[in-house]
Structures are given as structure tokens and as C-alpha cells.
Amino acid sequence: MFSICCIFDVLLVSILWTIIAINHYGGLNNAYDIAIKHFNFNQSMADLMLLSLGRSTVLIIHYWIIVSKLQITIAITTTISTGYIFVKLVLFTRDSAWNNFETYALLLISFLLCWIEVWMFESKVLKVENQVSRYLRPRYPNEKTALLSSGTNAGSDFNYSAFVTPAATIPPTPGGDQHHIEAANLDPRGQMLYNVAVEAHSELKETVLWPDGWTTESDKEGIKVFSRAQRRAPNRLFLSESHFLCSLEDLFEVLYHQMDKVTEWNSSILEVNMLERLTQHLDLVYTVGVGGGAGLIKSRDFLTLRYWVKERDMFFIVSKDVNDPIKPTTKYPRGFNGPCGYVFFPALDGSVKLTYVVNVDLKLPLVPQKVITSNLVEVVHDFHISLRNKMDEYVDSKRRASLYSGNT
Questions:
Q1: Where is 281: in which H helix or E strand?
Q2: CA neighbor of 363 nearest in space, from 339, 383, 323, 334
């Protein structure tokens, strides 16, 4: 919207000058020869077009290319434009061919346009970006702020090896045969959803194992966030990594089986419901994301197909949005998630390494991609922090329950 306003500024001033010039000089050729080629500051208004073009160019570069929120640039361009127009008005030759109502109207319009751009930048651009930032960034209670920003598991004194569940506790996925057997018992709709899940699993695996094209967006507190451009929507794919002091089975329990408790630790989720369990490895889930921006950005709902696979010591929890009559469109706008999810496996240091892939299209065409990227990086980073604290709490509760049962 702001860039459209800048372009409109240039077009309006140029069109008005052209109309006035044709009216006074009898054609564009005469206007060009007198007002531009033989330019006279005191008798020509052609410089107003260059003033508008220069101001708009600087502002578009400032906001869309540099992606800066600093107000100093628009303050400088507005001050220069206002001063220039005032000097033009004072020194303008009263007896020139341009001494008429249209000329002063052009000066007034040029003055108003530069101040409209200030209003647009202050009340629209910065306001919308702040609202988008609040929407994208999870909201945490104040009493947790210090905990969430304190870094990694510095306060954890647990011994990882003491809480590792034996690998046989969760039955491994014995390969594609069992999945095909489960799918064979589904109706045509279920088999179609199963095929979608298998394809999404292949895409997620390819995303995680494909090392090329990733750009590091953030590396702090033991959490790395990367992004990569892709040809289809959304424009960028995000991948993040961090380590957890828990067992594979504990992390799988929290991320998959305790789906109904996700709102307790992930404040960006408003609602989550299991709609249908198709097989042991496949289900349909309905979630609603928290809205924000004083109503500017509404809450969005997602109909998500979840599919988990265990390949040796590596867990895949795959998510993919689908269209299905089980949950028609509600009052919420329906969001879109491409193949995404979690991949986690044992790291060499004894911890569990989690890779989290985000493939979401927020459908915000008026917000620059750089702004969306910077905010999504914060969201992903905060997700790892909140999950890390949740896993510490979960492991601690298991330890206390074990000590209590031992004492009794």
C-alpha cells in the first residue's frame, strides 16, 4: 500500500504537469523545449516531477529493498520536499505563463502528497508491521519471560542416561509392509489420504536431507534456524535444529500422543482436536491458530493430516493440510501448510536432535517477505524454547513419579 502511494505520487504530479503544460504551451514538444530543455527555476514547474520521482524512489528503496523501519529517511525527504516547494512558491515569477490557478494547485497537491506519505508510513506501514509481529510471535505469560529467555537447559541437573526409555518400549514401524496392510483396510477416501501422507513423508525427508540452498537466519541459545527459497507458495521454507535432554520416546509422546495438551505450552495454538484416527500411524487433526493485530489478522484453522513413521532410530511426524468433508470451512479462514513436521533421532553427545520444518503460507501479500521471514524466525526459535521447557517439566515429572513409587 505504501509503495502504491509513492507510485501514485509520481503519476499524479506527472499527469497534472503534462495537462497544464499542454494547455499553456500548445503541445508536448513545445512544453519539453521551453519547460524542460530550457528550464528556468522561476518560471517552470517541471522540477516538481523530479522532486516527486526522487522522493518516491528513495522511500521505496528504504522500505522495500533495505526493509528499514527507521523514520529518519521519510523525515528527511519530507523536510527537503516541503522546503523546496516553499522556496518555489516564494521565488516563482508572478508574470510567467504559469501564473494561474492550476500552477498553485500543482504546488499544493505536491505538498499534500509528501505529507500523505508520512501519514501512510506512520499510521499504516509501521502499524501493520507491528500488528503482524504480535500475531506471528507467540505470547507468553509475563512470569515466564525470564525463564524462556534464559538460554538452554542451564538449570537442568538431570542425567540423560537415567531417563532413557529402552528402545523396545515403543514398537518400531516394521517398514512399509505394515503401513500398506493398514492402508489396504481403508475405504477409498482413507487410501487417498494415506497416499497423500506417504508423499508428504517423502517430501519432508527430502527437505531434511537436502543440504543445498539453506541460509542461516539465526544461531543462538543452541537453536539454529535456516531458510530456503522455493518456487511454490509459500516463498520460503524454514528448517530449525536444537537438542533435548530426554529420550526419543518422551519427545514422541509430547509431540504426538499428547496433542490435546499442546495449548498448555504452545501459546500460538488456540484449539486442537482429534477428528479421526484412520490407522495406528495416520489421523486427522483440527487446529486453530491464535489471531492478533487488533482483529486485522484473524485466527486461522487448519485441517491437518498427521502421519508418523519410525525408521531405525529416526522418528518422522509428518503434517500436511488436506481438504476433507469431515471438517467443512468454519468461521475461521482456512490456512495452508505444505509438507512439514518433526524429525528427531539420537545425537552423538547422547541428546536427542530435533529438526523442525515449517512450510506455512500466511497469505500476507502486502507485507514484504523479509518482514515475514524475520518474524517467523522468532516464532520458530520461541517454539524450541517453549518445547525445551516443556520437556524439562515432563522429564522431571516422570522422575518424581518414579521416586514416589519407589518410596511407596
A1: none
A2: 334
Q: Look at strands 314-321 and 300-311 and give their pairing.
A: antiparallel
- pLDDT value at 129 more than 60: no
End-to-end alpha-carbon separation of the chain, Å? 67
Give 140-144 contacts, CB < 8 A, sequence gap 24+: 140/267, 140/382, 140/386
Distant-in-sequence, close-in-space partners of 192: CB < 8 Å, separation ≥ 6: none
User: Which pLDDT score, from 0 to 100, does residue 81 have?
Assistant: 83
As a whole number of angstroms, the distance between CA 114 and CA 102 comes to 19
Residue 400, H or E segment: helix 369-407
Residue 192 is which amino acid?
M
Say if residues 272 and 290 touch (Cβ distance below 8 Å).
no
C-alpha cell at 329: 470451512
277: CB partners within 8 A, 6+ apart: 283
**Distance between CA atoms of 289 and 293, rounded to whole angstroms?**
13
pTM beyond 0.70, yes or no? no
Residues 291-305, buried b or exposed e (16+ Cβ, 10 A)? Answer: bbbeeebebbbbbbb
Cα 225 to Cα 355: distance, rounded to the nearest angstrom: 10
CA atoms 362, 367, 373, 379: torsion sign = negative
